[in-house]
Design goal:
Blueprint lengths: L5 E3 L11 E3 L5 E11 L9 E2 L4 E2 L4 H15 L3 E5 L8 H9 L6 H8 L5 E2 L2 H4 L3 H10 L4 E2 L3 E3 L10 E6 L2 E9 L15 E3 L2 H16 L3 E7 L6 E2 L2 E2 L3 H7 L5 E3 L7 E6 L5 E6 L6 E12 L2 E13 L7 H6 L1 H11 L2 E5 L3 E2 L9 H14 L3 E4 L7 E2 L2 E4 H7 L6 E7 H15 L32 E3 L1 E6 L8 E6 L10 E7 H4 L5 H5 L7 H4 E4 L4 H12 L1 E2 L7 E4 L1 H16 L3
Parallel strand pairs: 3-6, 7-8, 11-13, 13-16, 16-18, 21-32, 23-30, 28-33
Antiparallel strand pairs: 1-20, 2-3, 3-19, 4-5, 9-12, 10-11, 14-15, 17-18, 19-20, 21-25, 22-24, 23-27, 26-30, 26-31, 28-29
Helix pairs in contact: 6-7, 10-16
């Protein structure tokens, strides 16, 4: 059973054999280790998308087949790791996070069955809340790491900072860290009692401790953060590359979080080579790192580290895996198949890029009602989601609302509302200087967020006010707010009650910090209301209550001048979606 294709980043070792053998000297022994990482699985446990109701090409079920094949050759030389963001995404995770909380969490059960050696926390795992991740970590029969997740009461790591795995006389130390930007996205009640330390600062301290206490032959970083050193609220969100270069001692750093494939070597400040590797998301690929160590007694005399990203999609689904977890599969299937109500027209997030849309305005109306707000901010959380006319099932709820965000009501001035929208549309639209220009702000080619230059989950529109967006004007001067939706005057000096999701309300996307100029530390003081459950729950309850949805665009805003923007919208829609 061989994969059909691999993404090679470096020359991988070829030839299989015993993991340990005597070298030229009778006292020298060589050990070959295979370090395998999954990351950002996002609930893709089974080879089935319970939201779209279609097969998945990745999944832990295929990773299981891949790992079994490795173990047939390398046996105990395989070290299996997960790098976080595994408790959110598919209804499989949601069901065992919040619905069936009495059973062993499906994710813990699966990782135990697959014999994972170590795990790590991701920001979307924290998003599930203490009750979920504390239970899950306790049910895993391996440590879930988090060196820079600090208990504020003790000043010590809330989770084990590192794990030492010894195989055939080779000692491997694995240090786990998470992006410290978690407070920029999540309400404090989800991470109460914790703080998140800067990765480089934390790594320096723990590398020193590990070297002195453990004296490992191999030092591994398992970091839920990408390589780039971008700042978010003065915190470095993705610092894996900075740690690799600035903190000597690491042989390989396994990354995650940014969903971007990476496999490259960098030099640290001492001139040593460090391998950076990231398999991206949804268990379509795994990071596979081959380490060969020659030891003379207790001393390492040579060491080589090479890596590749191995595509697991060509692998067959592990039948034993599926049989073992068949009851859980059926439980999730029954959960997503429950009928919620009916919708009398097909709605799509595609419309939301070009004007007021029935899809987003359904969410706007819900937010206005629940938060008793004057104004609502909302963005398309999925690039291309659709709810078809007909019966609505629980699976559709994950299309209607992708993340487990709560709802806030915040107090913002009229000027802050305008400034917020100015930044949102600056991320969203380019400046049209001729009728032939693009309406949307696009890349020349697919990269990052596809053809979109910025992520669509930061493209907030507003409801509750009537306004236009003049795309011929420069950034900061595009929004013209005419009045409140009920005809009352809009006043830039007045304070309004504004509905936002918790990601936005905590500073996610910078629209409330860089956009309005509100300091990060003042955001919590602006929150006057919060739901205790996620928006998807309230959306489900609303549909059950009304039984049939009649979604309509509120038409509270539009792009102008329409002689330019309407044809441009058709062109850009064709470019992005293949339809006008």
């Amino acid at each position: 059973m061989k994969p059909l294709n691999y993404f090679f980043c470096l020359t991988a070792f070829v030839g299989m054999g015993c993991m340990m053998h005597s070298c030229a000297s009778s006292t020298e022994k060589e050990m070959t280790l295979k370090l395998v990482e999954t990351s950002d699985v996002h609930g893709c446990y089974f080879p089935y998308d319970f939201i779209a109701q279609k097969p998945l090409d990745g999944s832990l079920a295929r990773v299981s087949s891949y790992v079994k094949e490795l173990r047939e050759t390398w046996g105990d030389g395989v070290i299996l790791m997960d790098n976080g963001d595994i408790l959110q995404g598919q209804p499989t995770a949601y069901y065992y996070n919040y619905i069936d909380t009495a059973s062993v969490h499906l994710c813990a059960d699966m990782l135990n069955w697959m014999r994972y050696d170590v795990g790590n926390m991701g920001n979307h795992d924290v998003e599930a809340g203490h009750a979920v991740y504390d239970r899950w970590a306790g049910e895993c029969r391996f440590p879930v790491l988090g060196a820079n997740i600090v208990d504020v009461k003790t000043g010590q790591p809330y989770l084990p900072p590192y794990k030492v795995v010894e195989r055939g006389g080779v000692k491997v130390a694995i240090l786990g860290m998470i992006t410290p930007a978690v407070p920029s996205w999540l309400p404090e009640r989800l991470w109460s009692g914790l703080r998140f330390e800067d990765m480089e600062t934390c790594a320096r301290r723990w590398v020193d401790i590990i070297r002195k206490k453990e004296n490992p032959d191999l030092l591994v970083g398992l970091f839920h953060a990408g390589p780039g050193g971008n700042k978010l609220d003065s915190v470095t969100e993705n610092a894996s590359g900075e740690v690799a270069r600035n903190v000597p001692g690491f042989d390989v750093i396994f990354m995650g979080h940014d969903h971007a494939r990476c496999c490259q070597k960098v030099a640290n400040v001492e001139g040593d080579s460090v391998l950076l590797v990231n398999p991206a998301n949804m268990a379509r690929a795994v990071s596979e790192v081959t380490v060969r160590i020659v030891k003379r007694g207790r001393k390492v005399v040579s060491k080589s580290v090479e890596g590749r990203l191995a595509d697991v999609r060509p692998y067959p689904v592990d039948k034993e895996f599926m049989k073992t977890f068949e009851p859980q599969y059926k439980a999730v299937e029954a959960f997503v198949s429950r009928k919620i109500g009916h919708i009398d027209r097909t709605i799509s997030t595609r419309d939301a890029f070009f004007g007021s849309s029935a899809f987003i305005d359904l969410l706007h109306q819900l937010q206005l009602d629940i938060a008793r707000a004057d104004i609502s901010f909302c963005a398309p959380l999925s690039f291309n989601a659709e709810i078809k006319e007909g019966d609505i099932y629980m699976s559709d709820m994950f299309n209607l609302y992708r993340f487990e965000n709560m709802l806030y009501a915040m107090e913002l001035t009229g000027q802050e509302v305008k400034d917020f929208l100015e930044m949102s549309y600056a991320l969203w639209t380019g400046r049209m200087q001729s009728p032939d220009d693009h309406l949307l702000l696009l890349n020349d080619e697919d990269k990052g967020f596809g053809r979109l230059k910025n992520p669509s989950f930061n493209f907030d529109s507003a409801a509750g006010i009537l306004y236009t967006v003049d795309v011929t004007k420069p950034e900061g001067h595009r929004i013209a707010i005419k009045s409140m939706a009920d005809g009352r005057p809009f006043d830039v000096n007045k304070t309004y009650r504004v509905a936002v999701n918790s990601y936005r309300g905590n500073g996610g996307g910078d629209l409330l910090t860089k956009g309005t100029g509100i300091p990060k530390g003042e955001l919590a003081g602006r929150i006057v209301f919060s739901t205790d459950k996620d928006l998807r729950y309230y959306l489900m309850k609303r549909i059950e209550e009304v039984k049939t949805l009649h979604p309509q665009a509120l038409n509270h805003w539009k792009f102008v001048p329409e002689a330019w923007t309407v044809p441009a919208a058709r062109r850009d829609s064709l470019l992005l979606f293949g339809t006008k």
